[in-house]
Every structure is written in C-alpha cells, then in structure tokens.
Amino acid sequence: MIVSFLRPPQPCKPALLQSSVKQQVEAIEKQYISAIEKQAHKCEELLNAQHQRLLEMLDTEKELLKEKIKEALIQQSQEQKEILEKCLEEERQRNKEALVSAAKLEKEAMKDAVLKVVEE
Which domain holds residue 83? Predict the structure, then answer.
C-alpha cells in the first residue's frame, strides 16, 4: 500500500489517482492521529496511576514517621521525667541534711545559752 504512494501516477487517470492517493493519505493520517491520541491517553492513565501509588506510599511513610516521632517523644519525656525525679530526690536529700545540720547547730546554740544562764 505504501509502495503505491511512491509510484508516479499513471498518465491515463491522473486526477482520479491523485484523489485516491490523497484520500488514502488522509485516512492513514487520521489513523495515526487516533493511535497517537489513544497512546497518549494510556500514558496519562499510567501516569495518574503511578502518581496515586506514590501519594499512597508517601502517606504510609508519613504515618510511620509520625508514629516513630510519637514514640521518640514519649521516650524522651520519660527520660526527662526520670532525670527530674533524680534531681528532686538529690535536692530533698540535701535539704534533709541541711535541716539536720541546722537542728544540730540550733541545739548546740541552745545548749551553750542554757549553760551560760546556769553559770551566771
């Protein structure tokens, strides 16, 4: 069929052959355009499907990362709580020791005051 396009028109019916060739060329062009449009549509559908899969993968990854961040924050909070409790316990112990020391000093001061009063 394509080979017939390459042959020069025969002299007996040039207008009829030219018209026939032109119609065939137009029909082939329409088929090519239609095939290209179908292929473009298929490509667009594939691209949309890939895009949707990518969005789903990103959503899944986002949820996993949210969960990991949540777990890390909980762990960090627990560690900070433990550190704070340790610091509070150390502060309580220092306060207790300071109170005991202050009580001893007060006791000694009272004892000295009583002895002084008794001696006078």
Answer: 13-88
